[in-house]
Amino acid sequence: MESPAPETTVNTMAVRRSWVDSMKRCSLSGISIPKEELKKRITMPEYLRVAMRYSISSKDIVACDGEKSPVGEVECPVVVFINSKSGGRHGPDLMARLQDLMGQEQVFDLQDVRPHEFVEYGLGCLEKFAANGDNRAKETREKLRIVVAGGDGTVGWVLGCLGELHKEGRNPVPPTAIIPLGTGNDLSRSFGWGGSFPFSWRAAIKNTLDKATRAPTSYLDSWKLLISMPSGENLDTPHSLKQTEEVIFDQDVEIKGKLAEKVSCYQGVFYNYFSIGMDAQVAYGFHHLRNEKPYLAQGPISNKIIYSGYSCKQGWFFTPCMADPGLRGLKNILRLHVKRQNSSEWELVPIPSSVRSIVALNLHSYASGRNPWGKLKPDYMEKKGFVEAHADDGLLEVFGFKHGWHASFVMVELISAKHIAQAAAIRFELRGGAWKKAFMQMDGEPWKQPLKNEFSTFVDIERVPFRSVMINGG
User: Fold this and answer.
1) I need a labelling partner for 310 at 20 to 30 A (CA). Which of 27, 36, 206, 458 fits?
2) Cβ–Cβ contacts within 10 Å for residue 268, how many?
3) What angle do CA 291, 294, 297 make, to 5 degrees?
4) How many CB atoms lie within 10 A of CB 342?
5) For helices 135-143 and 123-131, what crossing angle results, to 10°?
6) What is the tens place of the pLDDT at every residue in 336-391?
7) Residue 434: pLDDT band by 50, 70, 90 thresholds?
8) Which is nearest to 271 in space by CA: 19, 469, 47, 423?
9) How many whole angstroms separate alpha carbon 380 and alpha carbon 378?
10) CB 171: neighbour CB atoms within 10 A?
């Protein structure tokens, strides 16, 4: 009889090799994903991605007869939008890495291709192929997932353009995952994608893409912001705010100032927060410095140091509040009306005289992961008429900061922010007087808002009827 020893030895060696191979595939981010396996799963059929890219570059939707298309299964195709200016020095390297993992046609630099162009022409191309009988194109369109590599402003920009699909009845809307490249990354934190660009990013990117194909989804409220201002002033707006036609003004709200006969209207959508006041002024200064001297903004740490410097320089911490009208409380220029939950009536809400910054917050994450609204006790919520806050509850949490020190203590949870209201809709009325301008921002994108002495400027906020679909990273 032959001895079984050789077979046992072979089996033991195979187990050891398997164990060693598994250990080699481990990284700081967990079990690594085989590159070719991932690439096969997330890459579109070549003829579709080439046609999609050509449609975008030519601004013309092209497609061939679906009966001639190759046969094969489409697993979970992914398209990535990357803001190559974000992430400091890593931007170009990250883009090259992504192109290597899925092909360059599926990676879009937002400096070259705008998200609305992808929605109109890229997805339009897939939809035209599908309409011509191409089942692979139909499957690709239905299974497509989006990854956005950038900060909160970039993510909001992409989500806003994807939201146009709802309006046009072009379902399904692809769900979105995030690679955090910004300074605060509050949207990324809220949906489990982390608060910073990972140190071991080459391995982490593969795991992020793999997770984006498998993870479950949830919903996110989005909020439409409409500015109605006297005509004659040019507004230098961020990407997410566009000029629109004059809209019908809601006359159910009491107006203290005068309404101009001719107005200019600007409209946008935000997902995390809108703010007015000193915090937006600091963000505005930082934003312009980064654009003028990009070599100073080489990553989140240097960004936060520069940001802190601007906070001190522009009066958020040290300048006496009476030195400049623009440093005084917002009560001097602002009136606030809200609609409460399940109410159609506008209510005037008093603004504390000490408040120099007002924030309307949708998420639990603000200013790099802080929750200034806080975890409120049930008896306090009952007394104030508040409910527990969620990202898809149809409500904004409105609170105020008195100055930089107050905001700092709030962020480390030593004290609470000034709770003002929970609102299903908001109207801010701003009047000039001694103020010639105010600063505003939404989702990290700031602008300078001119004010008139004789006429009011209005900022209206209401929930968008549909919700964005997000991929949960953890």
Assistant:
1) 458
2) 23
3) 110
4) 7
5) 140
6) 999 999 898 999 999 998 898 999 999 988 888 888 998 899 999 999 999 999 99
7) low
8) 469
9) 5
10) 9
Q: Report which secondary-structure segment, H or E, holds 248.
A: none
pLDDT in tens, 230-263: 988 888 888 778 899 877 767 677 788 788 888 9
What confidence score (pLDDT) does residue 399 get?
95
State yes or no: pLDDT of 321 exceeds 80.
no
- Name which of 209, 182, 177, 213 is nearest 197 in CA terms: 182
Whole-number Å distance between alpha carbons of 281 and 326: 10
Q: Is 329 helix (H, G, I), strand (E, B) or coil?
A: coil
| Residue-wise DSSP of 452-471 | -SSBEEEEEEEE-SS-EEEE
Residue 403 phi/psi, 5-degree rounding, is: -170, 180
Of 396, 253, 404, nearest to 335 (Cα)? 253
Distance CA 245, CA 404 (A): 38
Tokens of residue 400, six digits? 């105020």
> Which is nearest to 356 in space by CA: 395, 325, 313?
325
Distance between CA atoms of residues 356 and 276, nearest Å: 8
CB neighbours of residue 453 within 10 Å:
11
Which residue in this structure is represented by tokens 């504390």? 352
The pLDDT of residue 238 = 80
In whole angstroms, give the CA distance from residue 378 to residue 393.
17
**Quick one: pLDDT at residue 216?**
96
Q: Report the SS3 class of residue 77.
A: coil
What is d(CA 122, CA 112) in angstroms, rounded to the nearest whole number?
A: 14
Of 466, 467, 456, give the one whose Cα is nearest residue 337: 456
Residue located via tokens 């939809």: 127
Q: Which residues contact 121 (CB under 8 A, 6 or more apart)?
A: 52, 55, 56, 58, 59, 60, 61
Query: Are residues 422 and 340 in contact, defined by beta-carbon separation less than 8 angstroms?
Result: yes
What are the angstrom distances between the C-alpha of 47 and each of 103, 133, 356, 447? 12, 15, 56, 42
Residues in contact with 177: Cβ distance below 8 Å, sequence separation at least 6, in sequence order = 145, 146, 147, 148, 191, 193, 208, 211, 212, 215, 470, 471, 473
* Residue 76 token pair: 């979970």
